[in-house]
Amino acid sequence: MQRHLLRRRALIASAGLAAAAPALAACGPDIASDDESGASELLKAPDRTKGEITIWDRSGDLFEVFEGTIAAFNAKYPDITVNHVAVDIDAKLQNTLITGADVPDGVFLDDAKVGGFTDYLWDLGDVLAPYAADIAQQKLDVNTVAGGVYGVPFDLDPGLLFYNATALEAAGIDVDAIATYDDLLQAARDYQAAVPGAAPIHLEQSAFLGQLQLEMYASQLGTSIADADGNLRLDTPEFEQILTFLDTVRAEGLGTRAEYLTPTDIAELDNGNQVFYPWAIWFSFAPQQVLTETTGDWRATQLPAWETGGARSGAMGGSSFVLPKDGKNADLAWLFYEFLMFDPAGYAAVWGPGEVYPEGLATSIPSYTPAADPAKPLYSEITALGGQDLWTVATEAGAQIPGGTPTPAWWTGAVDYLGNNVQRMLDGDMTPQEVLAQSSEDIQTNLVDRQ
Amino acid sequence: MTAPTATATRRAPRAGRGTARLRRRAAPYLFVLPFVAIFAAFSVYPLFFTARLSFTDWRGTGAATWVGWDNYTYLLTNPAFWSSLGNSAILWLLIVPVQIVLGILVAVLLNNAKLRLRGLYRVAFIVPFVTPLVAVAQIWVVLFDQRYGAVNAFLGLFGLPDTGWLTTSAWAKPTLALLFLWKTTGFIVIILLSGLQSINASIYEAADLDGASKARQLWNITVPLLRRTIGFAVVLQTLAVFQMFAEPFVVTQGGPYNSTTTAGYYLYNHITRADLGTGAANSFLLVVLVMALSLLFVRLLRAKD
Questions:
Q1: Is A369 helix (H, G, I), strand (E, B) or coil?
Q2: Which residues of chain A lie closer than 8 angstroms to B56, CB-CB?
Q3: What's the confidence (pLDDT) of residue A115?
Q4: Residues of B at the A interface (Cβ-Cβ below 8 Å)?
Q5: Domain A160-315+404-448 grouped into CATH 3.40.190.10
Q6: Is B52 within 8 Å of A31 when comparing Cβ atoms?
Q7: pLDDT in tens, B42-82
Q8: Which residues belong to the signal peptide in this entry (chain A) (predicted)?
Q9: Predicted local confidence at residue A269, as pLDDT
Q10: Which among A34, A263, A410 is the nearest to B273, CB-wise?
Q11: Which of A173, A284, A292, A384 is the most exposed place for a label (fewest CB within 10 A)?
C-alpha cells in the first residue's frame, strides 16, 4: 500500500514536472527573438566629462601599468572616477556580456578575441575616425568586423629576431648579414658547426603560441588565416613557404623544440644552445626578468624577409580595448582610452618609465603612429639587452608590418586543428602540404561552417 | 431554537481540527519550500533552458535558429567528441581502480588504533586535496619537464632516457592521472575511513578468534562491508573524471594533440567559442553517459542487505 502510494506520488510529480518543462524552458533570456538582432551601433563621443567608469584589465604587470596612468588621466578629466579592476577576463567577460549584469564600461581584450564579441560592443568607427589614418593598418584590420571597428587599438607587437649576440660573436656569426630566412638557416648551420650540439633556432612547442608565431610569419607576407570576409585562406603558397622553412629547421636539427619560457626553453637559452628567437617584441621580457646567465647578451633586430626586399616584420599578438554596449558609461570610458592612446601625456604615461617598468614598457610599441616615432622614444635603452635602443628597432620594424591581415572570430578554435597539425609536422608526422590540406578541411567543417 | 446553536457548537471544534490538520499537512511542504524554490531556480530551470538551447545555434546574443537535432548529430559524428570521451575513459581506468585500492589500504592503515601519529597522517593525506591546483600544476610542469625536470633526472640515474611526460601523447594522460591521483586520493581515503569506522569491531575480534589472517579479514570482512562506501566513492570519482577540466586546463591545455582533452574540457571549448547550442547538446550527452555509468556502478557495487 505504502509502495503503491509512493509510486502514485512519483507519477504525479513526474507529470507535473513534464507539464512545467515547456513553461520553464520558455522562460529566461529570449533566445529566439529578433528584438536584439545584434546589429551594433556607433558610439558617439560624450558631451559630458563627469561620472564613474569601471575598467577591466587582466591582472599582472599591465594592470599595474594602467593603474599608474589614472593620475595622468584625472589631471585632464578630474571629474571622471576610474574604478580599475583586475579581472580574469577570459573567464568572466562572456558570461557578463550574455547576462548583462554589472557590465564594465571598458575592457582590455586580446585582438584575437575581439571578433567573437562584436554583437555586444560599440562600433567605434565614429570616435576613431579622427585618428584612423594614423593607426597601424594591421591593428585596424584585427578590430574590424563587417565594416565596424570594435576595439580601440592598444599595442603593436612587431615580430623581431632576438639573438644572443655574445654567443654568435664568439662563433663568428655576423647577424647583420642575415637578411632573409635562407640566411637565417645558413647562420644556424654555421653556428651548429661551431658549437656542436647546439639547436640554434627556437621551434615553438605550444600549439597556441606556435599558431600565433605562424601568423607572425604570415603577417610579414601580408596574409593571415582568413580574409576580411572570414573566408579561409590557409592552403596558399605563402603558408606553404613558411611551413617548409619550419620543417627544414626541424629536419636539419637546427631547432630547439620547447614551449615559450618553460624550464627547458630557459635552460637552452641560458646555455647558449638556442641563440635565435624569432618572436614578438614581448620576448624582451625574458632577458629582463627570466634569463639569469645570458641577460645582457641578447639583442633584437628586424626579422629576416621571406624574399629579398620583403617586409622585415609581422605582427604577433596584441590587444585592444573594447566598450560593451551595456556599460553605463562607455562613452566616458572612450575618453579614458582616447587619452591613453592618442594624447601625448597619455601614451607617455603608458609606455614611459614607471614603477613596474623603470625603463619603460618595452614589451610593445604604440599602434598610433605619431606615438611610435623612432625619433621620440617613449622608453629608454634596455640594460638587459646590453643597453640596446629597442625603441628604434621596434618602431622601424612596426612601420613595415603589412595590413590586410584580419583575425577571424574562430581564430582560437583553429588551434585544435592548425596549431596541433603544425606540432605534428614538427614531430615529423606530417608534411607542410598535409598540414595545410588537413587543417583547411577541419577548420572549414568545424569552425567556418558552424558560424 | 436551540438545535442550530447546538449544531454550530459541535461544528466549531471540527473546523478548528480541520485547520490544525491542514497546518500539520502543510508544515513539511512549507519547510522544504525554500529548498524547492532554490532548486527550481538554479537547477531545474537551467536544465530545461539548456535542453532548449541544445536545439538552437544560439551564440549568446541575437536571434537563435532552431536547428533540431543538428548539434547532436554534429557531435555524435565528430571524431573529436568521441576522442574526448575516449580520453576520459582512459583516465578513468588509470585513476579510479588505483584510487579505490590505494584508498582502502591507506584507510585501513589509518584506522589502526595502534598507529602512532594517526592524526598527523590523516592531515598529510588531505593536504594535497586542499592545495590550490594552479600551484600544484606549476610544480608538476617543473617536475616533469623533459630535459630539466627532477623526474627525468632521477630516472637518468638508472640510465633511462628522457621522457616527454607532458609533451607526448603516450605519456601525457598517465602524468595527468598521477596528478589527479595525488591530489584527490586523500579525499577518497577520508570517505573510506568513515565507512571503516562504521564496521563493528566485534566482527574483527571474532575473526581473530577464528584465526583469520589480516589479509583474509581485509578481503572477507572489510571490502564486503565497505561496498556501499566504495560504490559511493566510485560514482563520485566517475563524475569527477568525466567532468575533469581544471587539471588539463592548467597543465597541458588539452594537448599534446588533444590527448588530454577530456569530456569536460571539450565541452568548455564550445562555450569559449560562444557555440552555446553545441555546448548544451554536449552537456546533455555527458549527463546521459555519466548517469548511465553511475547507475551501472551502483548496481554492481550494491551491498547485499
A1: coil
A2: 31-32
A3: 84
A4: 40, 44-45, 48-49, 51-53, 56-64, 66, 74, 78, 80, 141-142, 145-149, 167, 253-258, 269, 271-275, 278
A5: yes
A6: yes
A7: 999 999 999 999 999 988 777 788 999 999 999 999 999 99
A8: 1-25
A9: 97
A10: A410
A11: A292
A186: contact with B, CB 8 A cutoff: no
Chain A hits for B141, CB-CB cut-off 8 Å, are: 262-263
Q: Classify A51-157+317-372 by CATH class.
A: alpha beta
What domains appear along chain B, each with residue ranges and CATH number? Answer: 73-300 (1.10.3720.10)
Half-sphere exposure (Cβ direction) of B295: Cα atoms closer than 13 Å: 6
- The pLDDT tens digits of the residues spanning B100-139 come to 999 999 999 998 888 888 889 888 988 999 999 989 988 9
Residues sharing a CB contact under 8 Å with residue A368, sequence separation 6 or more, in sequence order: A131, A134, A135, A136, A153, A341, A342, A347
> What pLDDT shows up at residue A14?
56
- Cβ contact, residue pair B45, A28, below 8 Å: yes
Measured distance CA(A394)–CA(A391) in Å, rounded: 5
C-alpha–C-alpha distance, residues B24 and B44, integer Å: 28
Place of cell 511542504: B29
Q: What pLDDT does residue A259 have?
A: 93
Residue B6 pLDDT greater than 50, yes or no: no
**What is the predicted pLDDT for the residue at A12?**
61
Phi, psi of A12 (to 5 degrees): -65, -40
Among B47, B50, B52, B78, the residue to mutate for chain A (most A Cβ within 10 A): B52
pLDDT at A2: 53
pLDDT at B285: 95
Q: Which residues of chain A have pLDDT under 50?
A: 1, 33-38, 40
DSSP calls for B93-116: HHHHHHHHHHHHHHHHHHT-TT-T
Question: Is residue B8's pLDDT more than 60?
Answer: no
Instruction: Please answer yes or no on whether A25 and B52 come within 8 Å at the CB atom.
Output: yes
For residue B7, name the pLDDT band (cuts at 50, 70, 90): very low
Tell which wins on pLDDT, B302 or A391. Answer: A391
Please tell me the total number of residues recorded for chain A in this structure.
Answer: 451
**Residue extent(s) of CATH 3.40.190.10 domains in chain A:** 51-157+317-372, 160-315+404-448
Which residues share a beta bridge with A163?
A276, A299
Given the DSSP bridges, would you call strands A159-164 and A298-302 parallel, antiparallel or unpaired? Answer: antiparallel
Return the pLDDT at A178. 97
> Closest by alpha carbon to B99, among B269, B282, B284, B230?
B230
- Interface pTM (ipTM) of the complex? 0.73
Residues 6+ apart with CB under 8 A from A15: none
* CA–CA min distance B27, chain A (Å): 18
